[in-house]
Amino acid sequence: MTETFDALTRLVGAGDVVVLSGAGLSTESGIPDYRGPSGAARRHTPMTYQAFTRDPVARRRYWARSHLGWRMIARAAPNAGHRAVARLQRAGLLGGIITQNVDGLHTAAGATGVIELHGRLDEVTCLDCGNLTSREELDRRLTEANPGFDAHVAHVNPDGDVDLPDEAVARFRTVDCGICGTGLLKPDVVFFGETVPPARVAQCFAVVERARTVLVLGSSLTVMSGRRFVIRAAKLGIPVAIVNQGPTRGDGHAALTLDAPLGAVLTSLADRVAAGAAAAGVQPAGV
Ligand SMILES: [Zn+2]
């Protein structure tokens, strides 16, 4: 553990690190990682893009549950792990931050230029006119359209997802785009069965290819969406370091793996290397 941590500090201390973060980084903010050790089993099958766009009943169920559940996500605050990543960036040690998380917590912790691979939950897009609006604005409109709806919640899960009786879902009224008037609204996140916009993927590959080290934080790398960047780095001979609780599907590509709570490890890491970077006069990258 100590030897592995020392090796990690050497890699990160050398700079040009690209962070790839996943749900495990946000568990200490109260947002469970379904696949990690603390995650409860997924209670609902995830919404697919196909069901959301083609099935009005599935869409209404999604918005009804999400209307009640998203406020918990919105209240989540960045944790020590997010703050440590922001410190590493301020110390000039990072070449980029790519996150699979849709919670916006890297940016809330002070990080800049974060590439949000799967989008953001606090923005809403219109599938017809393409306009982006804020989730807060949609929340206000859904509350107006559904007075007293909160009373129907049967059970709130730790991640803010909720169980709702079918009759409550049936009464829920969704709203359409407030700009074009008729378009379907969808949270600006990448659903299962949907592809990440190609330009965003290309941007991630470009960032990874310039890295001296790729640092995976709190991702089991289960989905190819994130794992492909680790595979690309390994092919190019760029060392991959993985800090995660539990094994990952990228372990075979990793130069080192550290199985430990992220907030504590990343705080120690930032304490160690950010001070060293300041003493050595490392300039922040990209400014
Ligand atoms: Zn629209």
Describe, in plain words, how this protein is organized in 3D.
With 287 residues, this protein is α/β, with parallel strands linked by helices. Helices cover 39% and strands 16% of the residues. The chain is built from 10 helices and 11 strands. The chain has helices at 2-13, 49-54, 56-75, 80-90, 105-108, 135-145, 166-171, 198-209, 224-235, 262-280, and strands at residues 17-21, 94-99, 115-116, 119-126, 132-134, 155-156, 162-163, 185-189, 213-217, 240-243, 256-258. The strands form 3 sheets. It has a 6-stranded parallel sheet with strand order 3-2-1-9-10-11, with helices on both faces. The chain has a 3-stranded antiparallel sheet with strand order 5-4-8. A two-stranded antiparallel ribbon has the order 6-7. The longest helix has 20 residues, at 56-75. The protein is elongated and about 60 Å long. The model is unreliable at 35-42 (pLDDT under 50). The structure holds zinc ion (ZN). Zinc ion binds at residues 126, 128-129, 131, 177, 179-180, 183. Zinc ion (ZN) is lined by residues 126, 128-129, 131, 177, 179-180, 183.
